[in-house]
Amino acid sequence: MSSANLSVLVGKNFACIKIAGRANFASSPDFKTLLNELAQKGFGHFIIDLSECVLMDSTFLGVLAGFGMRLNPKGAPAVRGIELHNATARVRDLLENLGAVHLFKLTSGLIQLPADMKTCTPESINPSHEQIARTSLEAHETLMAMNPENVARFKDVTQFLAEDLKSIEKSS
Predict the structure, then answer these.
(1) Structural domain boundaries in the chain
(2) Distance (Å) of CA 42 to CA 11, 17, 39, 94, 108
(3) For domain 5-124, is the CATH number 3.30.750.24?
(4) What Rg do the C-alpha atoms of the chain give, in angstroms?
(5) How far is CA 61 from CA 41, 64, 171, in A?
(6) Which residues contact 119 (CB under 8 A, 6 or more apart)?
(7) Cα(129)–Cα(102) distance, integer angstroms
(8) Contacting residues for 46 by C-beta, under 8 A, at least 6 apart
(9) Inter-residue contact 3 to 107 (CB < 8 Å)
(10) What does the DSSP assignment read for the chain?
(11) How far apart, in whole angstroms, are the C-alpha atoms of residue 132 and residue 109?
(12) Tens digit of pLDDT at every position of the chain (172 positions)
């Protein structure tokens, strides 16, 4: 299954990440690594351009929600945060249905970026099956912790992922 292409522009105080294609479990480890690296470099405001994102699965959303919760531990959008730009109706529905919409500022239209933005090419970590399983498990645990209604939706998925991860770890 193909996954999303991530492209990044960085400015003085913020980063703009464009997601093109399928934002799914396969691209989630790279996305998580990218977000963590940018945060470690001091970026506190993120614009996520979803204008070319054709699909977002629960793993990718769980990674995004976990990062949003980390930026704003009290759960309310703040100056430091994530702006989701040009999200499709399908992605907006997913955010609402899973109880994550409050973590983000939803915007649309043209993005007005300063002229001094620099291109940053994210490197793929070429995630292993174990990294994908671990990221997927953590993402679904995040979604369940964030919204109690998600427990019923994802308890079987998390159980499967936990067993899969144990199996992988035993065979390594």
Answers:
(1) 5-124
(2) 11, 15, 5, 29, 26
(3) yes
(4) 16
(5) 23, 5, 29
(6) 7, 8, 9
(7) 31
(8) 14, 15, 16, 17, 35, 38, 81, 82, 83
(9) no
(10) ----EEEEEE-SSEEEEEEEEEE-TTTHHHHHHHHHHHHHTT--EEEEEEEEEEEE-HHHHHHHHHHHHHH-TTSS--SSEEEEES--HHHHHHHHHTT-GGGEEEE-S-----TT-EEE-PPP----HHHHHHHHHHHHHHHHHH-THHHHHHHHHHHHHHHHHHHHHHH-
(11) 33
(12) 567 899 999 988 789 999 999 999 999 999 999 999 999 998 888 999 999 998 999 999 999 999 988 887 665 555 568 999 999 999 999 999 999 998 999 999 988 877 778 887 777 778 999 999 999 999 999 999 999 999 999 999 999 999 999 999 998 7
**Residue 78, token pair as written in the block:** 């703040």
